Amino acid sequence: MLIHDVAQYVRQTLPRPQFYIQDILPKQGVMLLYGNPKVKKSWLCQYMAFCISTGMECLSFRTEQVRTLLAQFEISPVSYGIRLQDMARHFELQDMMLYETSPMLMYLDDDRNFQMFMDDIRPINPKVIFLDCMAACFGGDENNGESVASFIEKLSIMKTEFEASIVLIHHTNKNLLSSNSTDRARGHSRLTGWVDTLCYMAEQPNGVQLQIKARQATRDVPNINIRFNNYLWNVL
Asked: How distant, in Å, are the alpha carbons of 32, 134, 154, 213 from that of 179?
């Protein structure tokens, strides 16, 4: 543990926050991307991964190109492969920059599963890891603080070993009366309190509104209206 004399500490040249997606995905940070079922959360996380792995702008945000892993635990490998092909038509992918794994249901809070997953992805050393979705890679009680803390510990180990950022896909709860997007994430508040960025996909008549709360952002990030069309996300 380090203890600093603040009078001396503030005179040092300290690095400013760095991002893989400007202002919303900090390096070695965690984003929680969540929304209602069928709001196309998986398609948005896939699009983000394509943008990061190619260095293309993502929803008007700058990106830094880096090796990226899409780990999805719900869809069959064949079905997911077709999704990747459909989106890939719009990108110039490079070898060894974007990887995917489709282990199906695999609870990473289980020690054995976690070590198996880490062993499998270690050779590619990803710097951004998408986990889609929490319900299929966490077998504990989402409403139990200790269970969620154990899962957070696993994500912290993953983030530290690979010096990586993590994007965790999640679902909303049934609290339809809440006007605060933070309260719409399902499960214990330990998770929303731990992540760096909350990205809520709010359904709109003509698409989706992203409501973003990012504590490391260099500016206030406004709500963004987007629409999914021809396997791409467009800002309205």
From this structure: 18, 23, 31, 14
- The SS3 of residue 71 is strand
Cβ atoms within 10 Å, residue 40: 18
pLDDT band of residue 176 (cuts 50, 70, 90) is low
Q: What span, in angstroms and rounded, lies between the C-alpha atoms of 46 and 122?
A: 21
Asked if residue 5 belongs to a domain, the reply is no
Residue 215 placed within a domain: yes
Is the backbone of residue 143 left (phi > 0), alpha (psi -120 to 50) or beta?
A: alpha
**Residue 17 covered by a domain:** no
How far is residue 203's CA from residue 134's CA, in Å, rounded to a whole number?
20
Number of folded domains that form the chain: 1
Residue 199, in any domain of the structure: yes
Predicted TM-score (pTM) of this structure: 0.94
Task: For 82-116, write each residue's pLDDT tens digit.
Answer: 999 999 999 999 999 999 999 999 999 999 999 99
Spatial distance between the Cα atoms of 17 and 45, rounded to a whole number of angstroms: 22
Q: What CATH code is carried by the domain that includes residue 172?
A: 3.40.50.300
Rounded distance, CA 170 to CA 38, Å?
A: 12
- Closest by Cα among 82, 109, 188, 210 to 143: 188
Domain that holds residue 42: 22-235
Secondary structure (3-state) at 115? helix
Q: Answer yes or no: are the C-beta atoms of 60 and 223 closer than 8 Å.
A: no
Report which secondary-structure segment, H or E, holds 128: strand 128-132
